[in-house]
Write a structure and sequence with these properties.
By secondary structure, the protein is an alpha/beta fold. The protein has 11 helices and 7 strands.
């Protein structure tokens, strides 16, 4: 009897039966099979969208389609760009989030050298739910899948690698669009990423995009918008992600105050810690809507331009 020959025979029988190693090995009886990877959601590979042909296509989309469309729909007033004059290298841009119009507005407002070297953190469960939307999102806006329910290791590692390669990131720390026109509490993902990668964060406040295409609406409506860039912020020594996220939220709120009042008044309130909050009053829905009407007075509906 040849034990080696018997072992080889058993291995051949196993391969012919299961297909291993060319296919996954069979799951032992009583064990739950693992969920197969579908290549969607957080697993979608966007590497192809950062290669030169895709980048060239995206630049053409941004400059020839997005820019005139945003000019017609949003009439953006861009403020605070001089605050980026001393910034070099990759950064994390964070902004409040009211509308699907936010990303095109920002991609046409963020200046060089970041405009065509930026990726957008997009909800993996929304933008990467099927092949078509995944490909369109990755190509048109440079989207990468981010798990918004948690700081997933896969998303965090991917973001770290991209920043290490010189890419900047645009993130919405609220995790989703505003349901009622007021902002939501910032989550810690953007702050965690900035601390981990040791890069500055540029806060941005957007005003008026909710009038263009708020959550639940399918057709856009023209409105005036304001994009206000803030001073770059870096995490303090021993400052954790949650504390830094609170500071980023306060910075965006102060920029919103600046957009609706004036720079000097907004700075005084920011220094005193009395800037109007992003999240609005903790009252009933009708009172929140009433309060928002006064705050959003500079973003009234605008008619389509006469051609």
């Amino acid at each position: 009897m040849n034990p080696l020959g018997d072992l080889i025979g058993r291995l051949r029988a196993t391969i012919s039966y299961s297909g291993f190693p060319w296919r996954a090995a069979p799951v032992p009886t009583g064990m739950k099979p693992p969920t197969p990877l579908k290549g969607l959601g957080a697993d979608y590979d966007t590497t192809w969208a950062r290669r030169y042909p895709a980048r060239l296509t995206r630049a053409a989309i941004v400059e020839s389609i997005m820019r005139p469309t945003i000019a017609a729909l949003a009439s953006p007033d861009r403020r605070g760009l001089d605050r980026l004059d001393e910034v070099n290298g990759p950064v994390v841009f964070v902004a409040n989030h009211h509308s699907h119009a936010d990303t095109p507005l920002l991609l046409t407002s963020i200046p060089e050298p970041w405009r065509h070297r930026i990726v957008v953190g997009a909800a993996a469960d929304y933008f990467f739910s099927n092949r078509a939307s995944s490909a369109i999102s990755a190509l048109a806006i440079g989207a990468v899948p981010i798990e918004r329910s948690k700081v997933g290791r896969r998303s965090a590692d991917m973001a770290r690698d991209l920043i290490g390669e010189g890419w900047s990131m645009l993130l919405y720390p609220e995790g989703g669009r505003s349901p009622d026109g007021w902002g939501q509490e910032f989550r810690g993902g953007a702050a965690f990423l900035a601390i981990r990668c040791d890069v500055p964060v540029v806060p941005i406040h957007l005003q008026g995009t909710g009038q263009i295409l708020r959550k639940g609406r399918t057709l856009p409506r023209p409105s005036r918008t304001t994009v206000t860039f803030g001073d770059p912020l870096v995490a303090k020594e021993d400052e954790n992600a949650r504390a830094f996220a609170i500071r980023l939220q306060a910075a965006v709120a102060a920029l919103g105050d600046e957009a609706t009042s004036d720079w000097y008044t907004a700075r005084i309130r920011a220094h005193a810690g009395t800037s109007p909050g992003l999240t609005g009053p903790d009252v009933g829905a009708w009172r929140r809507a009433w309060a928002l009407g006064g705050r959003d007075r500079h973003s009234r509906r605008r008619r389509w331009p006469k051609l």
